[in-house]
Write a structure and sequence with these properties.
This protein has helices spanning 15-27, 63-76, 94-103; strands at residues 5-12, 33-45, 48-62, 85-88. It has 110 residues and is α+β, with helices and mostly antiparallel strands. It has one domain (2-103): 2-Layer Sandwich (Alpha-Beta Plaits). Strands 2-3-1-4 form a 4-stranded antiparallel beta sheet.
């Protein structure tokens, strides 16, 4: 079903690490696709407001692969508390959703 497909967001500190993490999740079939964007982040950390450049990864996957993906990010991330946000999809083209399912080994779209 379409609501089984999600986008997971995480941020990292360097472009190289973003590409390395993206390749590792796609190679492990934890995601069909990862888009990488440069962002400026303003955040509070340990009582201090900080501003840093970061790289945002938008990871396309399924609910069934989420737990493994979360563990993969935590095991491979350099941040003490990495951003890991799961966003459900409200739908999408049948062809695209089917491609995600095929890419992560989830089978066919209902």
């Amino acid at each position: 079903m379409e609501d089984d497909y999600i986008v997971v967001l995480t941020t990292v500190g360097t472009k190289q690490f973003a590409h390395d993490l993206a390749r590792s999740v796609v190679a492990a079939r934890l995601a069909a696709c990862v888009q990488i964007q440069s962002v400026d982040s303003v955040y509070r950390w340990k009582g201090e407001v900080r501003s840093e450049p970061e790289w945002l990864l938008a990871i396309k996957t399924t609910q069934q692969r989420y737990a493994e993906l979360e563990q993969h990010i935590k095991a491979n991330h350099s941040y003490e508390t990495p951003e890991i946000v799961r966003i459900p999809t409200a739908g999408g083209s049948r062809e695209y959703i089917g491609w995600i399912a095929e890419s992560v080994g989830s089978g066919e779209v209902d």
